[in-house]
Amino acid sequence: MIDLRSDTVTHPTPAMLEAMMQAKVGDDVFGEDPSVNELEQKLADMFGMEAAIFCPSGTMTNQVAIKCHTQPGDEVICEKMSHVYIYEGGGIAFNSGAQVKTLEGNYGRITAGQVESAINADDVHKARTRLVTLENTSNRGGGSCYSFTDFEAIKEVCLQNNLKLHLDGARIFNAIIANQEQPQVYGKIFDSISVCLSKGLGTPAGSVLIGGKDFIKQARRIRKVFGGGMRQAGYLAAAGIFALDNNIDRLAVDHMHAKKLAEVLSEKDFVKAIFPVVTNIVIFEVGGRYSSKQLAEKLKELGVLAIAISPLHVRFVTHLDINLAMINEVSAIIEAL
Ligand SMILES: *Cc1c(COP(=O)(O)O)cnc(C)c1O
Prior knowledge:
Oligomer: single chain
Order of helices and strands: EHHEHEHHEHEHEHHEEHHHEEHEEEH
Number of helices: 14
Strand content: 15-25%
Number of domains: 2
Distance between the termini: 17 Å
Number of strands: 13
Bound molecules: pyridoxal-5'-phosphate
Radius of gyration: 20 Å
CATH architecture of the largest domain: 3-Layer(aba) Sandwich
Structural class: alpha/beta
């Protein structure tokens, strides 16, 4: 099976496993795991921020951040298809007792103007608008990226209105590679950044939340309450350090593979539209001969796994375990459909 369902399906390489085997570990709840401490410091430095905290998942880093930034009854502004809203089990309500105001974005991206008009007036009838969360790259936007001008404009609105700004950067390195950005620039814009190690970077598990010193201190308390304090987590952190050293630049290969799949798809009569492909996600609309579910089933019969993310849309995600030979094989299968 060629698995293009998600970039979370990767298996650690022998070299990554070796790095994990060699990890120096301690009890991270006591703050004594040298590998976890190294990973946290490495990412904080990379993004030009003060501190960071390792968590089991990207859902947890996002939810810890939202909990730290809000009080019950506050309002969080995000795009209507954002992960924090549609894929985290109602966590904003469950964990933070906050409510959400969703905006309709352009391939997952919202604008400063939209944010500004979504802020509630200082009025007892209204929830207090407290936090804006953005997603880069945007998963349901087909791996789309914000431009820094957009980030700066949104940041300005947040500063003027006393709002915190969080980035769900599950695939931030895909954006950084696609747009040749410097990670430190993100640290200047956002109050907190969540980074996944288990997506394109290919580790078995783990995400890191990055922010200021006081914020991360509070995040440590919340992580413990959420049950995310791990003990010898250094084995996983070592995979993260290995991934940061070895697997960032190669994301360009995944992006090339995604573009190749989009080219092949664009020739097919049952493909009605393809979201612009700029990173490792290809979302396309089907019609005529196939529904999205029928196409995913047909591909599965032929040895290719994809996800029908809506009745009309199918998603392919390229990743570390997909090589050019596999892309060529999938291309041939699509061409023959
Ligand atoms: C995968 C993902 C996450 C985190 O998911 P986990 O499975 O909890 O690690 C967060 N945000 C986005 C946009 C994602 O794609």
